[in-house]
Amino acid sequence: MPRVLLLLLALCLPATLLADPRYDLEDEALAAVIDGEPLSRRALELMHAVAMKRRPETTSSEVVFSLIEDRLLAREARANHPMTALIADNKVGYAPAVQVEERVVANFQAMFAAELAKAVRAEKGGNLNGIVSARRPVTPAVWQAVFGKPRLLLEYSLDDKGRAAAAQHALLSYVLGGKPGQVTLLDVYAAQHVQGRNRLHARDAGFAMEQAEQLLERRYVRHWVAERSGLAKADHDVIVRAVEDRLVREGWTSTIGVTADMHSDNARLKALAAAVTPEEVHAFYLAHPEQFRRIERVKARHIRLPDFETANRVYARLQKGDDFAALAREFSVADNAAAGGDLGWVLHGDKLASWIESIAFVQKPGTVSKPFRSPGPAGGASVWEILLVEERIEGLQPADSESVRYTASQSLAKQKALQHYRE
What we know:
There is one protein chain. A hairpin with a 2-residue loop joins strand 4 and strand 5. The protein is an alpha+beta fold. It has helices spanning 3-11, 41-54, 60-80, 83-86, 96-111, 113-121, 140-147, 160-168, 185-190, 194-201, 205-227, 233-255, 267-274, 278-287, 308-319, 324-331, 355-359, 402-422, and strands spanning 30-34, 37-40, 132-135, 170-176, 179-184, 293-305, 342-347, 372-374, 383-396. The protein is built from 18 helices and nine strands. Helix 1 (3-11) packs parallel to helix 3 and helix 7 (140-147) packs antiparallel against helix 8.
């Protein structure tokens, strides 16, 4: 890999974050040394192969750049934020260790897909059941010991007694690499997000066993990679560290509002949006009119028909090119039939507009709708409608409207967060 290209990649990073990556061309097995940690060509090849599965045109140089950037930004993040803020540790999502483990295993599965499939086929029975020595589904007595009496709670969790009981119940016993192991109910519980925990508290024994099998699969992958893949321990550790760095980086950029959705409940984005001034909102409005376009009014016609069969006949004639207004005068049962079904101009925000007139705002001009059912006049039977939008006039939302203030302040908050990130 050219030394000049890699050095240029490193120089693209913020000056305050440079970690002095080195590239030793004398050692052909070494691709680089990032922050004191060797990156072998073997590890780079594996990570490059995974990256190309997501984006086939990815180059190995781009992978190295990404590793350097992830390492430097993760180090910066760890220095300024607690890990609980970087890899979310809350009552809703997966625990940080579970997030890391899932991502690591997914990467190893992508790197060694064919080899792992061959190894599993070689097990007794051609699947992982071959290493399982015992299965113990959760019984009502075990659920009782773990959760106590069934009750409705706002938040589900395990107390010390429940944790002890869950740890005692082995859903799966297995032998892996000549050593016995177990997947306990506590292991399964600890690996869940809030929906999974809710299913366990609902005493879903089938779900518990499915999750135990997934955990066994992860353990098998980790064991095979460590013991049978031929991957050096240093390369194994580099790959795991790369996964952790990426998760920390993702958490940090979300925390500071760079990757958070502009409508998300991100504390930093909310604070930045609240600080946006009316002058900034107005300047943004003038600079980005395309973000504030709306349909001001539409000109439309309709044909109201008493039943589905008649509606389909009229629609078929419209498809052949018959005049819409003429068919409205001939078949419509609406009050404006004599006027060719003319609805006139329907204004944006008109609270007196009918249901059919409101639909006209979402239909493209020059198009005829398929027949659709409508509630019909007040107190009357339902009818079928065919709608034609003849013309649509667009304009801008009022500069002093709440929707403009909200959109502009959120966009400006996102820009400020991104500017801080780049600095």
